[in-house]
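Minutes, project huddle
Topic: does the predicted pose make sense with protoporphyrin IX containing FE bound?
PN asked that the exact inputs be recorded in the minutes so nobody has to dig through chat later. Recorded below.
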Amino acid sequence: MRLASESLLMELADRFYVGVTGDDALRAMYPDADLTAAAQHLGWFLVEFWGGPITYSKARGYPSLRIRHLPFPITVELRDRWLAHMRTAMAEVAIDEPDKAKLWRWFTAEAEALVNLP
Ligand code: HEM
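Predicted holo structure (tokens), as shared on screen:
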């Protein structure tokens, strides 16, 4: 792994989705009643992107965030909500510096790139 560890990134994704569950605006975008699968997909994606096993690609196919988010109307408000939940989740998971700062910079850049509405 180039960053953190597989188990920490999976835990981060789980905690992030606990926040999403309590956020009506974000929660409304997810078709599934249960966000367990969504958390698992995010966790697998993070692990693969940061150099771990390629479980995401095997299970989900090509890992393009841009293409996969096109169906969703992502405003700056939703971006900020997404990032706020990720910031909370990151505070709860023991990822050491400098990995933590690197991960946060990457999340903010990716989230910005996914905004497709004003
Ligand atoms: C900017 C605000 C964002 C919003 C509103 C958003 C929303 C969503 C939604 C609605 C889904 C679909 C879930 C489903 O079909 O069950 C999704 C999937 C996903 N998101 Fe985001 N997302 C955002 C940013 C990000 C960022 C920054 C990342 C990663 C750094 C990310 C990673 C993923 C992954 C890996 C999936 C699963 C794709 C799949 O395999 O189907 N998202 N997101």
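Observations noted during the meeting:
- DSSP finds seven helices and no strands in the chain.
- Helices lie at 6-21, 24-27, 36-49, 55-60, 65-69, 76-92, 99-114.
No decisions taken; revisit at the next huddle.
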